[in-house]
Amino acid sequence: MNEVHPSLLKRKIIHFDMDAFYASIEVRDDPNLLGRPVVVGGLPNSRAVVCTANYEARKYGIHSAMPCSQAFRLCPEAVFIKPNFEKYMAASLQMREIFKKYTPLIEPLSLDEAYLDVTNNEKGLYAVKIAKLIQDEIYEVSGLTGSAGVAPNKLLAKIASDMNKPKGLTVVVPEKAIIFMAELPLRKIHGVGPVTEKKLLSEGLQKCNDVWPYSFDELKIKLGNRAQWLYDSSRGIDERPVETSRIRKSLGQEETFVADLLSVDELKLKLIDLSHQVSESLKERNLKGRTLTLKIKYADFTQITRRKTFIESINDESLLSQQAMELLIGTEAGIRKIRLLGLSVSNFI
């Protein structure tokens, strides 16, 4: 396990991730919030979920995607703020302009994070130096902080950027990649969610080095088509390039209701509205897709999806609406209360 995999010698990647981005902007713009727990997402008596929380709020167990009502129960003294995406977008654009000074190879993941390939960068600098310069300049321009992971690939860089937040800078050199991964919990690998983690734990796989004794064929028996991915990821191997132009795979809309809905007629009206929004978005982008997906979250937060794939690609509002209602029939709508409906189209031509 001491040999350096050839792919680890190809690239120098930075994963840059802003620290509690939305909340940090709100604190920057209102000094009265300094030192107080801040939650961005909605009011505590609403059906909104947490977009982000600052580090003071996270001490109470508050995290992204948590219902704001639950966040309030954990920390009643927290300040709850509705998101201002126009303001967040402006800060994001400032950040990306700084990235462009060092490399054109930028893969944005969201408003507040991105991969940068600085192998052959504009200024001929070491990757660690670039990461530090970016941190300093972002703070100088916006008053905001970010954390960076510097590594030979995207997998390692993303894990590294989360190691020393806030204002962290973590470096993984190729020769130390296998050591870095050895004791790392598998759940730290991007793509290992709660369901996958449960499956891995059932197989006795908790840390990365728990995977190493198994051959690929043995992992294949245990994990099926995810065996190759885990075999490589547990060793810090990732050959994905930084993609400057990401292909959209789906387009959709969803709505969380103010009150849970039981009436099928009301749900159908919501689907008509969602179909209109999705159709308009598809037509604006000159897109048609063959797969329609209905997403439902019940009142107890159980989530299901129903999908249908067509021979011809579609973006017509009436057809989307009609097919969405047929998918609705295959759910417990009218029997169980529903808090969220979502509709998306994928499988584009």
Task: Write a brief structural summary.
The chain has 12 helices and 12 strands.
Please, could you describe this protein's structure?
The chain has 349 residues and is of the alpha+beta class. It has 4 domains: 8-18 and 86-177, Reverse transcriptase/Diguanylate cyclase domain (Alpha-Beta Plaits, 2-Layer Sandwich); 21-85, MutS, DNA mismatch repair protein, domain I (3-Layer(aba) Sandwich), CATH 3.40.1170.60; 183-233, 5' to 3' exonuclease, C-terminal subdomain (DNA polymerase, domain 1, Orthogonal Bundle); 250-348, Dna Ligase, domain 1. 36% of the residues lie in helices and 22% in strands. The protein has 12 helices and 12 strands. It has helices at residues 21-29, 55-58, 68-74, 85-100, 127-142, 154-161, 177-182, 194-202, 216-223, 227-233, 264-284, 317-329; strands at 13-18, 38-40, 52-53, 79-81, 106-110, 113-117, 146-151, 169-171, 250-261, 289-298, 303-314, 338-348. Strands 5-6-1-7-8 form a 5-stranded mixed sheet. Helix 4 packs antiparallel against helix 5, helix 9 crosses helix 10 (227-233) and helix 11 (264-284) packs antiparallel against helix 12 (317-329). The longest helix is centred in the C-terminal third of the chain and has 21 residues, at 264-284. The model has no long low-confidence stretch (mean pLDDT 93).
